[in-house]
Amino acid sequence: xxxxxxxxxxxxxxxxxxxxxxxxSKETIDRIRSMSDxxxxxxxxxxxxxxxxxxxxxxxMRGEENPLFERFSGFEDxxxxxxxxxxxxxxxxxxxxxASQRPFYLNAKSSHVAVVHADFICVDAMPxxxxxxxxxxxxxxxxxxxxxxxxxxxxKDTHAEPLRQRCAHYIMQPYKxxxxxxxxxxxxxxxxxxRKVFEDCEIADTEIPQHIVVKPxxxxxIADGNEDWIDITEKVKPYIEFSVEFAPLLxxxxxxxxxxxxxxxxxxxxxxxxxxxIERAQQKGKMKPEKAAELTAMIRKIEESMHFTFWDFKNxxxxxxxxxxxxxxxx
Length: 331
Fold this sequence. Notes:
Blueprint: H1 3-8, H2 22-33, H3 37-46, H4 54-61, H5 67-72, E1 84-87, H6 92-101, E2 112-118, E3 121-126, E4 130-135, H7 136-139, E5 148-152, H8 160-169, H9 190-200, H10 216-225, E6 229-231, H11 233-245, H12 247-283, H13 289-305, H14 323-327
Antiparallel strand pairs: 1-2, 1-5, 2-3, 3-4, 5-6
Helix pairs in contact: 3-4, 12-13
């Protein structure tokens, strides 16, 4: 994700989720860019942008150069996809979780693990929302000051895109911790989500534990004593402090990224519903098998070209319509 390009290419981030077509999208962008300063300032205030940042907000929404983007290029280091943020919440339940981990690791101090998805946007699993995207400023809200960021030395530039795709894959998965012998495929908790993302990308030699329940303290242990992981907290702290200072503005920019993933999921749902409709039409004799197979093959072709896949959209293929579908070539 390129922050500047993302914001420049969409002045309509605030209403992206209701855009029905590219034509409507362009119309909305043009309408917003033509707003007066007063109208745009009102939009910014509704997004909780402080008064002294409203001029930057207007520039972002109009796709113009602005000080926010200029600042992004001046950091020694920044958060990268696959970085892990280890935090200790201030709540009594968080502190109880830390205490419960000390028999497993004496220096346990983390109650939560978040994965950096893209720039200042993280993905993590929490009770209630399950797996979701949150800004780094939200991850670090109401936590103790000893949070830290660790990075696996073995990560390469080529890992970034697969990692981003796997972070997106688990969006909206329910939160659950189980002591069953098998790992959960349809649910995640924070530290397990981090392990899944790395394992799915087949990133070797991370030494993330393989036991059934992987705990936040397992990542504390890695951070404390594994030479293949480095603590980059001090290097990225200026970038994070900047992200916290401008959180309302960055939330506007991030909305396109986050809502875009939700839109991708909605499109999967639409295609799944369409497949069921085709199947029912064939079963009732309202559609010939050859036509059903042709339409299904077209949907399959679309699926194969998709950039993202999601954990709860399985078997969106040809099996439901029988062997005829698999024999029809996509146009």
